[in-house]
Amino acid sequence: MTAKKKNRLGKGLGAIIPENIEEVPEDVEEATRKVADIPLDMIIANKHNPRKEFNEVAMEELRSSIEQHGVIQPITVRKSEDEKGFELIAGERRLKATKDLGMEKIPAYVLPIKTEVEMLGLALIENVQREDLNPIEEAEAYMMLAEKFDLSHKEVAKSVGKSRTTISNALRLLDLPDQIKKDLRNGELRAGHARPILKIEDKEKQKTLWQKIKKRNLSVREVEKLARQIKNSKKTKKPPKKTKKKKKPPYIKEFEERAMHAVDAKVRVRGTTDKGKLEIEYYSSDDLNRLMELIDSLG
What is the pLDDT of residues 53-97, one digit of tens each? Predict the structure, then answer.
């Protein structure tokens, strides 16, 4: 990506959204670079939209608001490739709500966006800045933005008006087990509860802590404390069991005693009756010489 495109993204939507508002356009070309009331059947969905989940309670509230006050914030669109209609850039919830209400038109910013990459960037920025995404959708949006535009965490942060730490912390949520990410998507788990889980490397222990959060309805501070305890805890190694010495058969013990008296030194038999070794102890070079002479005399 060129530096020019990066700078344009960094300015946000306000830098390229025009201020003038028009009536319903007579054709697509006339609507370009304006805000216009566009027929819903002329708008197709954005296949790159970062939003994956729709909370039905929130959607019902949005429908009620639009029914009473209309669409206060226009959606953003661009001309479709066949130039016969428009493609949604951002505002899928508003578009869906107006369709649910049976409305025919919706106010929209029509932007002169040409490339898929630029369109994706604007969609992500608009959604993130409006805080319309759940923590995982937001993290995936940052990841997609970084990959498509080849941006560093610092550049992504600048583009969406967030701190670099915020971007890095959000992206780390993608490393969590799928079950935990699912709860983040559907709102059953908050990002503040999920971040301490990341301090634990063991995936199974992460799941254990997550289950405790759900079962006990823990606060963020309580989760952080538990996470530290789990991280700092070490497995206590059980001392090795002492192997019980097998008792020697009586005849072996009797032989050791006879041999000890015969050579005037400690004698031990090690092993089994089938295989082993016979040990005779000595305590000095003179003692060794004495034993060697004794054994020679037996021959």
Answer: 677 887 888 899 999 888 888 888 888 877 788 988 888 889 999
- Token output for 299: 């021959």
Is 116 part of the annotated catalytic residue set? no
Cα 71 from chain centre: 36
Residue from 19, 60, 92, 131 carrying the catalytic annotation: 92
**Domains delineated in the chain:** 17-111 (3.90.1530.10), 177-232 (no CATH), 252-293 (no CATH)
User: What is the arithmetic mean of pLDDT over 182-192?
Assistant: 91
Give dist(CA 265, CA 156) in Å, integer: 83
Residues 170, 142 contacting (CB under 8 angstroms) = yes
pLDDT digits (tens, 9 = 90+) for 114-173: 766 667 667 766 666 565 678 998 898 888 878 877 888 888 888 777 888 989 999 999
What predicted TM-score, i.e. pTM, was given to this entire model?
0.53
